[in-house]
User: What shape does this take?
Amino acid sequence: MNNFVTLMHHKPLVFVHLVAALAALLLGIAILTRRKGTFSHRTLGWTWVTLMAVAATSSVFIRDYRIVNKPAWAEEVIVKRSARATYDVDMDGLRKAGVK
Assistant: This one.
């Protein structure tokens, strides 16, 4: 319990995200037990949508400022360049060995 208090105190956005996501998970289970189209199913469904929106929105702002953010495509470029470099080195080695 002390860990939750510490988390809430030091990183309130992470705590909000955690609570919203866990509540949405539990509520999703409850929604699936309701008959589709009933008032309670629709009401709980919209509550679930709201909780998921809170979780998604809060996740955008959670970051560690000690770590430099890089664009998502950067990893793809690094992987492709390293794969290409490996391929080029292998082809050069094969050519030097006389393999056609």
The chain is about 80% helix and 0% strand. Residues 70-100 form one domain.
